[in-house]
């Protein structure tokens, strides 16, 4: 798994999410005709011990470890997503990102955002795979596996991703408030007020000289 391209996902990673590219054309040689497959995405913290990085049992069946069971990935990988195998024959066109009518579909086809569900942990009726927010300032690794839906076993897999770290929360006292970091609107307002003050002082001085 790789981080999404900057033109598709800005500010990536965020404090609690990581946008990954889906595995286009990765599992093509492992697909058999007339069979149904799914892609599972697993996530774990880099600090988890190497021995706990397995995502299948001894029979090759994918583990159903949840976010809660693995303490958010601290104890090992948890299943963060299940989706269809991306169609290698017709990948999304990145140029369509510039079309407001197509951008949502293109991003959904091309990317998966880990940590994008803020409610599933607290919804007692939620039955799907839970994808809760990630921890800030924490390094994670991710892995895709190809699963045969008929046999329920893993047919192929990627390596674990390179370490990917979420962003750190910035303390309010460390935020730079120098004018160079002000927004454009604040600069415009400050400039207008400065001009008004100059005109007011000029008018006052003109009236004093006129009186004298």
UniProtKB/TrEMBL annotation:
GO cellular component annotations of the record: plasma membrane
Parts of the chain that traverse the membrane: 187-209
GO BP annotation list: urea transport; water transport
Keyword Zinc attributed: no
Keywords assigned by UniProt, alphabetized: Membrane, Transmembrane, Transmembrane helix
Coiled-coil ranges (or none): none
Top-rank taxon, per record: Eukaryota
Protein's UniProt name: UPK3A protein
Organism: Nothocercus julius
The encoding gene: Upk3a
